[in-house]
Design brief:
single chain, alpha/beta, FAD/NAD(P)-binding domain, 2 domains, 5-stranded parallel beta sheet, elongated, binds flavin-adenine dinucleotide, transmembrane, oxidoreductase activity, FAD/NAD-binding_dom, transmembrane helix, NAD(P)/FAD-dependent oxidoreductase
Length: about 325
Amino acid sequence: MPVSKRRPFKRPRHVPATDYEVVIVGAGAAGLSAALILGRCRRRVLLCDGGRTRNHFSPAVHGFLSRDGIKPQELLQLGHGQLKPYATVEQRQNCVNTAYKDPETGTFHLTLDSGREVTTRKIILATGVTDILPTIEGMHELWGRGVLHCPYCHGYEICDQPVAVYGTDKSVAGFALLISRWSKNVAVCTDGWTSMSEHARHRLQRHGITIHEQPIRRLVGKRNHQLRHVEFKDGSMLTRHAIFIHPSQKQRSDLAAQLGCRVLQRSGAVWVDKRIQTSVFGVYAAGDTTPAAQQALVAAAEGAQAAISCNEQLTREECA
Ligand SMILES: Cc1cc2nc3c(=O)[nH]c(=O)nc-3n(C[C@H](O)[C@H](O)[C@H](O)COP(=O)(O)OP(=O)(O)OC[C@H]3O[C@@H](n4cnc5c(N)ncnc54)[C@H](O)[C@@H]3O)c2cc1C
């Protein structure tokens, strides 16, 4: 039988009628992976994405099993392409602006930026996060190439190169010691913050890490957006291949808040249980949105888990 003839199951009468069984918001690694599993379950799915993924500034995705070093755009194209045989998955380039749960039926109503309104039995939020970079000239321009955040993603590429680690609180010492596993030439830049404890200073010194406390004027990059040097306000310069930062983050979308999902106070991440369900029944969250490690492969795994949990819950409701 041709693949496109594999229709979804007929809805049992006691199950509320909705446009879709699952709406997945966000088509990064998490959302695409969820859509693949649900397509294979013959679920009626709407996959919406209204923008770019978090890593689109980066030249490569590293550490993704079987795809190490692939361009972010290429990974997404593969993911979208592999959804094509699954006729029950509809892909749309739309932002989902609003979502609420109908308390009577337990179904969800969503509004897309096109103005279209859709209903669904379950939602998977795979909307990711936004990085908030320090306001220093050059940070945004070099982000993803000369300004890096994750040694598991980029550490191997800067092995044994001179690198800087930026931080204006006590967490900078631990971060610099972590980076020192990849390079023995690490300099901490605290951009005017001078309250590092004596204990932390000694630890850094013991591992050959230098400390530069003067305020930074700007980051100067090369044409290929790698770092050339850090320029300080006192006129001095530090030649480095890259600078690691630990940016703060916010949720890319406020849909979790609109739906009343519990959010962790410190990180702002959306809380999920072991089935990747949020505190709101029927709403699942996967990928960088949740507290798990922020890696593309982990996001894909969470997306798959969310899809399995959704399908099993839908089945329980249908077979009641
Ligand atoms: C510079 C950089 C380099 C990185 N390098 C690596 C690496 O080498 N290896 C690695 O494993 N990880 C890397 N990461 C981390 C990786 O990018 C993330 O872990 C991964 O993208 C998370 O996938 P996700 O699907 O959760 O979110 P995302 O990939 O960010 O996808 C979320 C999607 O949701 C969409 N969206 C948001 N809100 C809405 C809405 N309301 N309606 C519709 N769509 C919406 C967004 O447009 C986006 O496309 C890197 C991150 C950065 C910043």
